[in-house]
């Protein structure tokens, strides 16, 4: 019987802590060694897009700092790129084909190579980046495409919660929320599919429910907490029972407490302990 290895997906904050040294390099090296031997490492499109949006929105002076975060994200060997959450659920839960052909893993790999080869942000915008072994061509990177995806998602989420706060929109039940998700990912919302989705996205639903409660408070500023939408999207990847989500945000663990998937939402320290125990 083949042992199925756990997979680890990191959020943006953990990658930032690894990049700036908040998490010591020696700990990152130990975790990478553990993942290489005993587990698998996956890069979510959400984390990647958020980091690319940081480059797009950052100035030239911070380009190297923002670029370094991409480098850290891609350091582990045998990394796998995961599609956007909706397509991931279509594939992992329902065995359906990906819909978005514009952001396939092989294309993401090329764009990352271009970004890591750039000497300055301006070179990316002007299409003046050359790749090792391919000096006859120059490349750019469509950073705005990634940043726009993030912006649109955050804006739509803030508008939805604002309508909920004002009473223009009723809070979803798990049933109506599940059917809405199925509609967005082009999967029939029959009872069997609804039940299957509820099991696959239990943590994402609990997180959504916690945000409904927060939206009722006038003190909850949607603009200041717009990254909450991204955190909720990241929880969709737990639809794969082998995936573990590594986060530096304690509120995610708090909001998903009691979920059947809660034991797969870990802090970096917990992952480090797993690595030490496996020696």
Mind explaining what this structure looks like?
The chain is α/β, with parallel strands linked by helices. It contains 14 helices and seven strands. It has helices at 12-20, 25-38, 45-57, 63-73, 85-94, 105-117, 121-126, 143-166, 174-184, 191-200, 202-215, 227-234, 250-255, 268-277; strands at 7-10, 40-44, 80-82, 129-131, 134-139, 243-246, 265-266. A five-stranded parallel sheet has the order 3-2-1-6-7. It has a two-stranded antiparallel sheet with strand order 4-5. α3 packs across α8 and α11 (202-215) packs antiparallel against α12. It starts with 6 loop residues before the first strand and ends with a helix. The model has no long low-confidence stretch (mean pLDDT 92).
What's a quick, concise take on this entry?
With 279 residues, this protein is α/β, with parallel strands linked by helices.
Question: What attributes characterize this protein structure?
Answer:
279 residues, alpha/beta, 5-stranded parallel sheet, two-stranded antiparallel ribbon, 14 helices, 7 strands, 57% helix
Helix content: 55-70%
Q: What value does the average pLDDT take? A: 92
Derived structural class:
alpha/beta
Number of helices: 14
General form: globular
What Rg do the Cα atoms give?
Answer: 19 Å
Q: Separation of termini? A: 22 Å
**What share of residues are in beta strands?**
5-15%
Would you spell out the secondary-structure blueprint of this structure?
Blueprint: E1 7-10, H1 12-20, H2 25-38, E2 40-44, H3 45-57, H4 63-73, E3 80-82, H5 85-94, H6 105-117, H7 121-126, E4 129-131, E5 134-139, H8 143-166, H9 174-184, H10 191-200, H11 202-215, H12 227-234, E6 243-246, H13 250-255, E7 265-266, H14 268-277
Parallel strand pairs: 1-2, 1-6, 2-3, 6-7
Antiparallel strand pairs: 4-5
Helix pairs in contact: 1-4, 2-14, 3-4, 3-8, 9-10, 11-12
């Amino acid at each position: 019987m083949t042992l199925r290895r756990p997979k680890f997906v990191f959020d943006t904050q953990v990658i930032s802590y690894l990049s700036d040294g908040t998490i010591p390099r020696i700990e990152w090296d130990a975790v990478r060694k553990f993942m290489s031997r005993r587990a698998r490492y996956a890069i979510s499109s959400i984390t990647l897009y958020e980091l690319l949006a940081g480059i797009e929105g950052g100035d030239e002076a911070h380009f190297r700092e923002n670029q370094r975060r991409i480098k850290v994200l891609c350091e582990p060997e045998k990394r796998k790129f995961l599609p956007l959450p909706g397509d991931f659920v279509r594939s992992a839960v329902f065995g359906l084909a990906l819909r978005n052909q514009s952001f396939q893993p092989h294309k993401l790999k090329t764009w990352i190579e271009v970004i890591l080869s750039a000497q300055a942000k301006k070179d990316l915008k002007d299409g003046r980046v050359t790749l090792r072994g391919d000096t006859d061509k120059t490349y750019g990177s469509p950073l705005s495409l990634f940043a726009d995806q993030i912006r649109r998602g955050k804006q739509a989420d803030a508008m939805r919660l604002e309508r909920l706060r004002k009473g223009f929109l009723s809070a979803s039940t798990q049933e109506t929320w599940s059917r809405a998700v199925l509609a967005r990912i082009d999967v029939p919302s029959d009872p069997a599919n609804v039940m299957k989705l509820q099991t696959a996205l239990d943590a994402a639903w609990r997180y959504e429910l916690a945000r409904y409660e927060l939206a009722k408070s006038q003190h909850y500023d949607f603009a200041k907490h717009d990254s909450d939408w991204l955190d909720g999207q990241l929880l969709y990847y737990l639809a794969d029972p082998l995936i573990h989500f590594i986060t530096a945000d304690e509120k995610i663990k708090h909001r998903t407490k009691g979920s059947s998937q809660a034991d797969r939402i870990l802090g970096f320290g917990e992952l480090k302990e797993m690595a030490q125990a496996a020696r």
